[in-house]
């Protein structure tokens, strides 16, 4: 039986030390390492050793009784949350480590929300019970209040007698146990069997406690893990898997890490990935089974296993492979962007190669090159991530770089519905495009709908327009920020059977998009956080005032004599560094949890637009004007006048705005007027 278990925690909760003990108890390693001694089995990178934190999600393998476990040690720092979230997609069970002193911290709540979103069965281990100030009972109560009321503290030994309180806890949540409990016939065996199923369904969350550093409670936890976890993978079905990590070895070979969800994959077989319409199939040239940094070559990998392959060139984390064709995205979206700073002797080609690899390994970086500004931009979660990236680029690629100050990543969209037209007709070229633009739902990105009839425009040209409009990097008019949450409908278009050539429809489509934006109500969007603050009741007024002044909103606070909890939504720009102010305001007693909650209309659009100082008319990548041809020369028509010059004019029919040919267009070719009705 193959079982994948992920370890998750707020930074410094003792997660890596706990992993060392699990591996030592199961004889997967001969000696236990320590984070402070820089000799742990999983934190092997020099950056991890120097900082004492997990940056990269690494895996180990151990066997206990009749099960083989694949252990994923995930980063605990919030800046590396996307790396952690990618691992969630392949877990069978999760173990959340909490400190018996600090208890439920801000990032713990974010982890919990993600675990419930992915529906992963979860166990808790309250660690560091040996430290001064530890209070496991208080932490258990915090788990029940802040995370789930279905957390159950288990006896240290699974075979120990189940208390009346525990039996009552289970009977309240499992209908089949209620009658025997009331009759007094509920046995320990009944409880264990029911608990096993309830844990798998995510209805009960077992808790245990101990000290990983002193090896207290870890052996007992292993017994519970063995008693409560199970999987049912089918080796007979066609192979299907999920990619959860991309890495490159010292020679630059791309290594794709996969969780096998069903079937068997053999070396030298072809493996398909990508959506059905654009599916890619490549031959596997090697299968590797990793344990820490070491690996062994294998001829096959079976359902339930974690393994890596060589031979896939472009698949990304989250993608399904084989019989699984879907792709899972990330819910943790970076809210900051930064510019990569470099100067000779660093060459652009070397830099693009380095960030090409880093972008494949971490798609959330969203690496992009601005051709006009000659700048390389990345998206990040925070400043610590930039420090780590600077070290990685230096050590791995021997390139000396730095980063500009991180800035808030704004986006733009529109409200309502507008129509845009674009015409591109310099001498020897011809294309015309008519679009309908509508504001889309939040987080919907750019969507494309085709209502163009093939009699008006050949399907090949329609496909070109779709490709160009779905290209990333379209700019809004207010700040030049990325365009999003926009529904684009292709209504019609026009080509010339002789003069239309490659790239003409890109020019026409971009001009139609821009001309539509010029007529729209443009909205600036800013990233916002879901906020949760725990403070003393005396501090409620000050915090609510801060939230209001920062452009946020809050719900009525939940106040008890000992504490108050405030929840709400706040702009990232105002609250990304609020933790320092909160600590000063509450003498270090306040606790804050922030989780990216998407984008909303900016609360200070005017100030941001002024600060960005974007000149829409000077953007070389876009123009709102259309190009027409007369007397053998092309001439520009401003966007507000372009509609009247179009060769296709708008009309209304059946409740939809459609476009129809007004008159055959004329053009001068070699001194003669040519009329074309195509």
Automatic annotation (TrEMBL):
Keyword terms: GTP-binding, Nucleotide-binding, Protein biosynthesis
Top-level taxonomic group: Bacteria
Domain named Tr-type G: residues: 1-233
Protein name: GTP-binding protein
Organism in which the protein naturally occurs: Paenibacillus rhizoplanae
Origin organism lineage: Bacteria, Bacillati, Bacillota, Bacilli, Bacillales
């Amino acid at each position: 039986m193959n079982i994948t278990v992920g370890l998750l925690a707020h930074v410094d909760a003792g997660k890596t030390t706990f992993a060392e003990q699990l591996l030592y108890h199961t004889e997967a390693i001969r000696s236990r390492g320590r984070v402070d001694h820089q000799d742990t089995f999983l934190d092997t990178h020099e950056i991890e050793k120097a900082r004492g934190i997990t940056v990269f999600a690494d895996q180990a393998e151990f066997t206990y009784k009749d099960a083989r476990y694949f252990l994923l040690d995930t980063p605990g720092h919030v800046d590396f949350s996307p790396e952690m979230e990618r691992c969630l997609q392949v877990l069978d069970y999760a173990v959340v480590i909490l400190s018996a002193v600090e208890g439920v911290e801000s990032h713990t709540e974010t982890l919990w929300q993600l675990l419930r979103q992915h529906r992963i069965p979860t166990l808790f281990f309250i660690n560091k019970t040996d430290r001064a100030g530890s209070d496991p009972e208080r932490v258990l109560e915090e788990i029940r209040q802040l995370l789930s009321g279905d957390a159950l503290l288990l006896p240290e030994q699974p075979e120990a007698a189940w208390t009346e309180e525990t039996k009552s806890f289970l009977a309240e949540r499992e209908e089949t146990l209620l009658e025997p409990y009331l009759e007094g016939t509920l046995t320990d065996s009944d409880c264990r069997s029911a608990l096993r199923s309830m844990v798998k369904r995510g209805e009960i969350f077992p808790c245990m406690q101990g000290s990983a550093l002193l090896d207290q409670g870890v052996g007992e936890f292993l017994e519970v893990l063995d008693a409560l976890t199970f999987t049912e993978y089918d080796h007979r079905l066609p192979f299907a898997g999920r990619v959860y990590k991309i890495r490159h070895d010292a020679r630059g070979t791309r290594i794709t890490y996969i969780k096998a969800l069903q079937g068997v994959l053999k070396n030298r077989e072809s493996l398909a990935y990508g959506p059905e319409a654009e599916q890619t199939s490549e031959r596997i040239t090697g299968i590797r089974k990793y344990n820490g940094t070491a690996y062994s070559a294998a001829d096959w990998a079976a359902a339930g296993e974690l393994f890596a392959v060589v031979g896939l060139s472009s698949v990304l984390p989250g993608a399904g492979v084989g019989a699984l064709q879907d792709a899972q995205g990330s819910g943790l979206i970076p809210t900051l962007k930064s510019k990569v700073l470099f100067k000779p002797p660093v060459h652009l080609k070397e830099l693009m190669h380095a960030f090409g690899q880093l972008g494949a390994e971490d798609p959330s970086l969203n690496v992009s090159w601005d051709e006009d500004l000659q700048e390389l931009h990345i998206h990040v979660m925070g400043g610590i991530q930039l420090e780590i990236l600077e070290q990685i680029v230096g050590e791995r690629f021997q390139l000396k770089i730095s980063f500009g100050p991180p800035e808030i990543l704004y986006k733009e969209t529109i409200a309502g519905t507008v129509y845009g037209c674009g015409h591109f007709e310099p001498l020897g070229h011809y294309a015309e495009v008519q679009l309908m633009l509508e504001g889309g739902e939040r987080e919907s990105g750019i969507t494309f709908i085709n209502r163009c009839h093939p009699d008006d425009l050949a399907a090949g040209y329609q496909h070109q327009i779709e490709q160009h409009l779905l290209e990333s990097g379209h700019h809004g008019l207010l700040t030049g920020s990325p365009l999003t949450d926009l529904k684009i409908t292709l209504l019609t278009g026009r080509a010339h059977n002789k003069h239309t050539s490659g790239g003409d429809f890109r020019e026409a489509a971009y001009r139609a998009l821009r001309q539509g934006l010029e007529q729209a109500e443009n909205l600036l969007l800013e990233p916002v956080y879901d906020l949760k603050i725990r403070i003393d009741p005396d501090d409620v007024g000050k915090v609510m005032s801060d939230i209001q002044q920062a452009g946020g909103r809050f719900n009525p606070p939940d106040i008890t004599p000992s504490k108050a909890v405030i929840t709400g939504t706040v702009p990232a720009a105002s609250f990304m560094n609020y933790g320092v102010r909160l600590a000063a305001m509450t003498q270090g007693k306040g606790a804050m949890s922030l989780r990216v909650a998407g984008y909303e209309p900016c609360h200070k659009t005017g100030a941001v637009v002024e600060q960005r100082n974007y000149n829409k008319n000077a953007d070389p990548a876009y123009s709102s004007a259309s190009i027409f041809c007369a007397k053998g020369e092309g001439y520009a028509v401003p966007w507000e006048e372009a509609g009247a010059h179009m060769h296709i004019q708008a009309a209304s029919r059946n409740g939809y705005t459609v476009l129809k040919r007004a008159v055959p267009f004329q053009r001068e070719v070699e001194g003669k007027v040519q009329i074309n009705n195509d």
